[in-house]
UniProtKB/TrEMBL annotation:
It comes from Microtetraspora fusca. GO terms for molecular function: hydrolase activity. This is NUDIX hydrolase family protein. Pfam families: DUF4916. It comes from the Bacteria. The keyword Transport does not apply. Signal peptide: none annotated. Keywords: Hydrolase.
Amino acid sequence: MTEMTETTPGWLSPEELESTRARMPILYVDAVPVRVDDAGVVTRVGLLLRIGSDGTVSRALVSGRVLHHERVRDALLRHLEKDLGPTALPRVPASPQPFTIAEYFPTHGVTPYHDPRQHAVSLAYVVPVVGDCRPRQDALDLVWFTPEEAASPLVQQEMTGGQGVLLRQALAYVGCLP
């Protein structure tokens, strides 16, 4: 009997993904796109406008799964291009370091992060972008907020699944919140 090994990089079928989500954590990346001035100070924060599967509209960070046999940096770049467009020109270092790790649980209250589909572990990054951003895929729009606007209760309440908490952590990490 010969053992077959799958060598083609890729992802799971929808059925396999659903089954896997029910059994083990899935690795994600979250990215907070920012504009910075010449001194490296964050001047704007980009938030996507999305329509959820239930029809609700919310603000969101760039986020997505890391594929099998994909480097985290490559996944980060792929999701930034997918959501912000090919001319966003993100500045991801050769060896990116997350500002935090967010654990999303299907059960409310375990952490501030909630995803009803799965237990997901997300590496979260602040990523400067210097190019022209044109939202694509399921993103309706990209709005640039000042850090103060992004941290406001109005914007925070428009974010779901704990992403508002993650955004506030990112703003604190870059020195925009006390």
